[in-house]
Amino acid sequence: MTLNELPIGNSAQIVKLGGTPAIKRRLMEMGITPAATIQAIRRAPMGDPLDVKIRGYHLSLRKEEASAIEISPA
Q1: Neighbour count for residue 2 (Cβ, 10 Å)
Q2: I need a surface site. Which of 6, 24, 39, 45 has the fewest CB within 10 A?
Q3: Structural domains in the chain, sorted by start
Q4: Strands 57-61 and 50-54: what pairing?
Q5: Contact, 50 vs 61, CB < 8 A?
């Protein structure tokens, strides 16, 4: 399952980061690392971007970025 499939309000644990090396590096710089817990907060009306909460702060991710994050529902 990927982060863009996580229902709003649910939490999950990050399993693996995918995508291009540039996307992986950018996600890790934002604190999105394997074993971290992430929660889907809300989506924009057209579904992009996705607002998530990780490590105590909110972050907006595009669909492309969210689909590169493999998760395991908590």
Answers
A1: 16
A2: 45
A3: 3-73 (2.30.30.90)
A4: antiparallel
A5: yes
CA angle 51, 55, 59 (to 5 degrees): 20
To the nearest 10°, the Cα dihedral for 28, 30, 32, 33?
40
CA atoms within 13 A on the CB side of 20: 5
The set of long-range contacts for 57-60, using a CB threshold of 8 Å and a minimum separation of 24, is: 57/31, 59/30, 59/31, 59/32
Span 41-59, pLDDT tens digits: 999 988 789 999 999 999 9
> CA-to-CA distance for 18 and 10, rounded, in angstroms?
21
pTM for this model (two decimals): 0.85
